[in-house]
Design goal:
The complex is a heterotrimer.
Chain A: E1 2-3, E2 6-7, E3 21-25, H1 32-40, E4 51-52, E5 55-56, H2 62-67, E6 70-72, H3 85-92, H4 100-109, H5 125-138, E7 143-147, H6 155-168, E8 174-178, H7 182-188, E9 191-196, E10 199-204, H8 206-211, H9 213-225
Parallel strand pairs in A: 3-8, 3-9, 6-7, 7-8
Antiparallel strand pairs in A: 1-2, 4-5, 9-10
Helix pairs in contact in A: 3-5
Chain B: H1 4-51, H2 59-77, H3 81-103, H4 108-128, H5 130-133, E1 139-140, E2 147-148, E3 151-152, H6 159-179, H7 183-193, H8 195-200, H9 205-231, E4 233-234, H10 241-254, H11 261-276, H12 283-297, H13 301-314
Antiparallel strand pairs in B: 1-4, 2-3
Helix pairs in contact in B: 1-6, 1-9, 1-10, 1-11, 2-3, 2-9, 3-9, 7-9, 10-11, 10-13, 11-12
Chain C: H1 6-18, E1 26-28, E2 39-45, H2 52-71, E3 80-86, H3 91-104, E4 109-111, H4 116-128, E5 132-134, E6 152-153, H5 159-173, E7 177-183, H6 186-201, E8 205-206, E9 210-212, H7 220-223, E10 232-235, H8 240-249, E11 255-260, H9 262-265, E12 279-282, H10 288-291, H11 294-303, H12 320-340, H13 348-355, E13 360-361, E14 372-375, E15 380-382, E16 385-391, E17 394-401
Parallel strand pairs in C: 2-3, 2-4, 4-5, 5-6, 7-8, 7-9, 7-10, 10-11, 11-12
Antiparallel strand pairs in C: 1-3, 12-16, 13-14, 14-15, 16-17
Helix pairs in contact in C: 2-12, 3-4, 5-6, 12-13
The chains are: A alpha/beta, B mainly alpha, C alpha/beta.
Chain lengths: 226, 315, 417
């Protein structure tokens, strides 16, 4: 993937299996969100392929990918003003006849049932992020891309999100989670990939990768630059 | 999601127009009939701007296409008003589909400039293609025995056309109101607010925007056909950029984010102009000042005023 | 005339905001020597907007000449009341204003708009209202097929008549080979076609006509296409001043003829030095010495115009074709009201039947430059056409094309309805 003369991602190859939660970490500007945008179809890569369950989806539009079972959330909360929580879930379920019961259950499970008829603008930031997550999950996706799901959350809200990811996603579908919070990474992911300057710097089990001196160097170097 | 106050207000305005028409006499009935045809144009701008996310400065071109199509259709099929209005709708949809398909390839601001180029180009073509448009002279509506659903109908700036235009507009607004409670309309609003977000939920954002823009074209085209039946003459001025700017002013005064605001905007601006003309030639200056005041103190138009008042009360 | 350009529209809007202090409804009754109910004449006039330059003259002429009429016995001894409304040079406003005159002011007669789209949209309405509509449009289509109506007469000239009359004279005096540079709008195309017919009929020839798209930002690429071997260039374009400047600076030294009534649209003195030698076509000369008419002198006096054709109060050069059109329209109403015994509006049908029998209106106070023929078939008047030429900073009479040479075939026959 390149933007003009700048190459955002170079030779990044990632294979995430069914039921696996893969965290992607890396300093700012490493290309994490670009990677998610390429996978979800918002950016087209200049070269390379994206496959979902063996099917090549590189040339498909974001909506086609979504219909094939690829869901995502956004780093910045992207809800629709003036719509209620339950309207958001109805939107997310593309099938008009989808079971209302499932939606209500999901709201219960995600702790949003009390807000079902409230407009999203009135929700707390944490609840808004949870709703984003619920919208992705109600699609019953085969694969989920979570772009910094805990960004801006309090400690308690972050714990709630961690629990949701562990209880509702682990072992069920493939997930890529972009995260800065190492606590979230270690608690939720099966594997971690470190991106730096658009390339894979390290990959492996969370405890191994986070102890890797090279990875520490990347983060320290990044911190020194900031 | 359905704006009950909005629909009641808009229908109320139309009902009042029809009720007072016999009292205000022939002249004002004609003025109001023409205003009703322009309400379609104002509404089409609101639809394009607020729901297709296309800041269209070419809505008058689409309106004009409907008006010319009505004149051509009358020459071809005679005075069947249903067919004439259908021709207006079809012409509006066609032009909007062509414009829309091109505009969706542009950025938001690029699309605004794109619509200006469309408006100017069509005006230029209309001026040059005298055989089809009558150029600056315009085209008269052929004299025909006009009929609606088998009944003879007198076209022109009269109370009959005011009632017909109001009835069609009321039906359109009610249809819109019913539609605004549906899932599909929710998707339209989602696409309008955040196309990318809607796309990753599986919706074809471009398709929805094009469809809404085409509907806005149908509305403008229908208004154009009614305008042609009321004015019985269509001049190239109808497709001009300044006419489009007028439609934006109407929509802005009524409240551009609500399609129910269009009728109020048209009435406020046009009736003020008509009354001011009786005692001054500085109408445009006064209307200009009025619009500056609206922009400063009522940025969301008449409909927005209602919302901000209710939100103040709730605080 | 249908001179529309975006620039004009913008300028017009600015002018509308600032220019006129005149109220829209100007009513005047000056009734010395008259008695009875006033005859009400509505004037649908371009007081503001892009055509307000010509509207200025029609308004001045109508107001001044109605005052003059009232001071000189009125019409059939009755005073005349003038009600002037502003079209804003906009078709929808113009039509609404006409309806205001007809329905609310209940005028007896209307002097109509000059902008052809307004005039064409209006004449049907006046016809339905059975009100005589004296159109001031100079688009020949106004009295043509599909547009001519029984209640409309035109006492001014039009594109077909001016081109037919002038082409012959100019081919004789300037040369046989012509180029045309025209605005690509209805008016320009119409002038081009009639000029072509006139030149061909006079034994001349026309090379390729160059179309100037409306709103073209730069005229030069189009001017460069004009045939350099032509003897004369006929230019019905909106921005004549710029066109002439570019022609001269591009080395074209041919004789230039402006389209009919151009000198009523702008003050010829705006052309400055490049205007020297430029020809125009009007229904009246500007300086009184060129008309040698005591009636014209009387009109100039009534309107506050000096012997050189300069309006004293505004300093503007007179738009003589506009003044003539209004004078002759009022003359037509006066002559036919008096001769047909018209008393009330219901008598208008009889007035029209009478008018269709009157072939000639003899030279007189409101026909100051000579007899005027009115063709009953399409209600179109024919009058002498003045070919003018700018020389030494003043516009003077070059030649006169007699009215007979301006007659072209009628497209309709209203007498058979």
């Amino acid at each position: 993937m390149s933007f003009g003369a700048f190459r955002a991602l170079n030779d990044v190859s990632l294979d995430v299996g069914h039921g696996e939660i893969r965290a992607i970490i890396g300093p700012n500007g490493a290309g994490k969100t670009t990677f998610v945008n390429i996978v979800s179809g918002i950016f087209k890569p200049t070269s390379g392929r994206v496959t979902l369950e063996g099917r090549d989806i590189t040339t498909l539009s974001p909506q086609r990918r979504a219909r094939l079972g690829l869901a995502r959330t956004f780093q910045i909360t992207s809800l629709f003003k003036g719509m209620t929580v339950s309207e958001h879930l109805q939107l997310a379920v593309r099938d008009a006849d989808a079971d209302g019961e499932t939606r209500r259950e999901l709201l219960e499970q995600m702790g949003l049932a009390a807000f079902a008829d409230r407009e999203v603008d009135t929700l707390s930031h944490g609840d808004q992020r949870i709703l984003e997550m619920a919208m992705a999950m109600v699609l019953k996706p085969k694969f989920l891309l979570l772009d910094e799901p805990t960004a801006g959350m309090s400690i308690a809200e972050t714990d709630r999100m961690i629990r949701l990811i562990i209880e509702r996603l682990r072992g069920r579908i493939g997930v890529i989670i972009i995260e800065h919070d190492m606590n979230v990474v270690t608690q939720t992911s099966d594997k971690v990939t470190v991106l730096a300057a658009g390339a894979v710097a390290a990959s492996g089990l969370p405890q191994d990768v986070l102890r890797d001196p090279h990875v520490k160097e990347i983060y320290l170097g990044s911190a020194a630059n900031h | 999601m359905r704006d009950r106050v909005g629909i009641v207000t808009a229908l109320g305005v139309l009902a009042v127009l029809c009720a007072i028409a016999p009292l205000v006499g022939e002249f004002w009935s004609g003025v109001l009939a023409r205003c009703v045809s322009w309400m379609f144009l104002a509404i089409s701008f609101s639809l394009a701007y607020s729901y297709a996310n296309i800041p269209s400065v070419a809505q008058a071109t689409v309106f004009g296409a409907g008006a010319y199509a009505a004149v051509w259709a009358t020459s071809l099929v005679g005075g069947n008003m249903i067919l004439i209005m259908t021709a207006g709708v079809a012409a509006g949809a066609l032009i909007a589909l062509v414009f829309g398909a091109l505009l969706l390839k542009m950025s938001h601001s690029g699309a605004a400039i794109g619509t200006i180029i469309f408006a100017v180009t069509f005006s230029m073509l209309g001026n040059a293609a005298v055989a089809y448009t009558g150029g600056t002279d315009g085209l008269p509506m052929p004299a025909q025995a006009f009929h609606l659903l088998g009944m003879p109908f007198a076209v022109g700036p009269n109370i009959g056309m005011l009632l017909l235009g109001s009835a069609v507009l009321a039906a359109l607004l009610v249809a819109f109101w019913l539609f605004s409670g549906t899932r599909t309309w929710r998707v339209v609003r989602a696409v309008q607010q955040n196309a990318m977000r809607a796309q990753v939920l599986g919706y074809n954002a471009a398709g929805y925007r094009l469809a809404v823009f085409a509907v806005s074209g149908c509305v403008a085209g229908l208004g154009g056909a009614l305008y042609a039946l009321i004015s019985r003459h269509v001049a190239i001025e109808v497709v001009s950029l300044s006419m489009s700017l007028k439609s934006i002013l109407w929509a802005a005064v009524g409240g551009v984010t609500s399609i129910y605001g269009g009728p109020i905007g048209v009435l406020a601006v046009q009736l003020a102009s008509e009354l001011l003309l009786r005692w001054t030639v500085r109408v445009d200056l006064i209307i200009g000042l009025m619009l500056i005041a609206v922009a400063l103190w009522m940025p969301r138009g008449v409909m927005g005023l209602r919302r901000s008042r209710s939100s103040q009360q709730s605080q | 005339m249908k001179r529309i350009s975006r620039r004009n529209v913008l300028l017009g809007s600015a002018a509308a905001a600032t220019a006129s202090l005149v109220p829209t409804a100007v009513t005047r009754v000056l009734a010395q020597g008259t008695s009875g109910d006033p005859i009400v004449i509505g004037h649908q006039c371009e007081l503001t907007g892009w055509d307000s330059a010509t509207g200025f003259w029609r308004d001045k002429a109508a107001t001044g000449l109605v005052d003059w009429l009232n001071a000189n016995g009125g019409i059939a001894g009755r005073p005349v009341r003038l009600v002037t409304v502003d079209t804003k040079s906009d078709v929808d406003t113009g039509v609404n204003q006409l309806r205001h005159l007809l329905i609310q002011e209940k005028v007896d007669f209307v002097i109509g708009a000059e902008i052809s789209s307004i005039a064409l949209a209006s004449n049907t309405i006046a016809n339905e209202n059975r009100t005589l509509y004296m159109t001031m449009s100079s688009s020949e289509a106004t009295t043509g097929k599909g547009a001519a109506v029984p209640y409309q007469f035109r006492m001014t000239t039009n594109s077909a008549a001016t081109a037919a009359g002038a082409a012959q004279k100019y081919v004789e005096s300037i040369g046989k080979r012509w180029a045309t540079f025209f605005a690509d709008i209805k008016w320009g195309q119409s002038e081009r076609d009639w000029w072509q017919k006139g030149v061909t009929a006079a034994g001349g020839e026309i090379g390729r006509a160059i179309a100037l798209p409306v709103d073209a930002p730069d005229l030069l690429p189009f001017i460069a296409q004009i045939d350099r071997s032509a003897d004369g260039i006929f230019i019905p374009v909106l921005n004549a001043l710029q066109a002439i400047q570019l022609l001269r600076s591009s080395g074209y030294d041919q004789q230039v003829v402006l389209a009919g009534l151009s000198f009523s649209l702008f003050d010829y003195r705006e052309l400055g030095a490049v205007g020297d030698g430029v020809f125009g076509i009007e229904t009246a000369p500007v300086a009184l010495k060129d008309s040698a008419s005591s009636e014209m002198a009387e009109i100039y006096k009534a309107l506050g115009i000096d012997d050189d054709g300069i309006h004293t109060a505004s300093g503007k050069a007179a738009g003589t074709s506009m003044i003539m059109g209004i004078a002759q329209s009022l003359g037509f109403v006066k002559a036919n009201v008096e001769a047909s015994g018209w008393k009330v509006k219901d008598d208008t049908a009889a007035l029209i039947r009478h008018a269709e029998t009157v072939e000639t209106y003899a030279k007189g106070p409101l026909f100051p430059l000579g007899d005027v023929i009115v063709r009953p078939q399409d209600h179109q008047a024919f009058m002498d056409i003045y070919l003018l030429k700018i020389a030494g900073g003043a516009v003077g009479k070059y030649a006169v094309a007699p009215k007979e040479s301006t007659i072209y075939p009628a497209e309709v026959d209203l007498t058979k309805g």
